[in-house]
């Protein structure tokens, strides 16, 4: 029995509020961590009228506009699942990677199960914040992306556009992995 190659997929979502089901996933952005030009992005029709005004203000998205422009969630999740399958293939294992992965994964998992009755990522996600904490010995309160960026010096910047943020967090993930494997890096600072 051969081991499956892990393909890390960086995923970011923008939502209308804090929990799936009552609030909507509005956009999905994803990229292959090691080939960040392999991307997926879509807008979704809202599943409810519930919205936290602050969540919408941060993203600049509108429920009304998404009702017209967004994909039906079943179509969006089918396209996302197909994209994951194309990137990963049948012999490899997709690994969900996120910055504050529990939040993003909860929406993606809910939508996959509600509309497709399956989730290609299974029931787990790799959290960049937790990886960074373990790699650096930092405290949880010091795992904000801005603090990671100050230390890791990524080229990209986050902007609350799901695809851009997925590519940004993929870069952070690559930098953390590179620093973990580089024996000369001193994370004790």
UniProtKB/TrEMBL annotation:
UniProt entry tagged with the keyword Iron: no
Domain Exonuclease: 7-182
Keywords from the named record: Exonuclease, Hydrolase, Nuclease
CDD domains in alphabetical order: DEDDh (cd06127)
GO cellular component, one term: cytosol
Gene Ontology annotations of biological process type: DNA metabolic process
S-adenosyl-L-methionine recorded as keyword: no
Classification via InterPro entries: Ribonucl_H, RNaseH-like_sf, RNaseH_sf
Gene3D superfamilies: Ribonuclease H-like superfamily/Ribonuclease H
SUPFAM superfamilies on file: Ribonuclease H-like
Example GO molecular function: 3'-5' exonuclease activity
Entry protein name: Exonuclease
Organism: Halomonas cupida
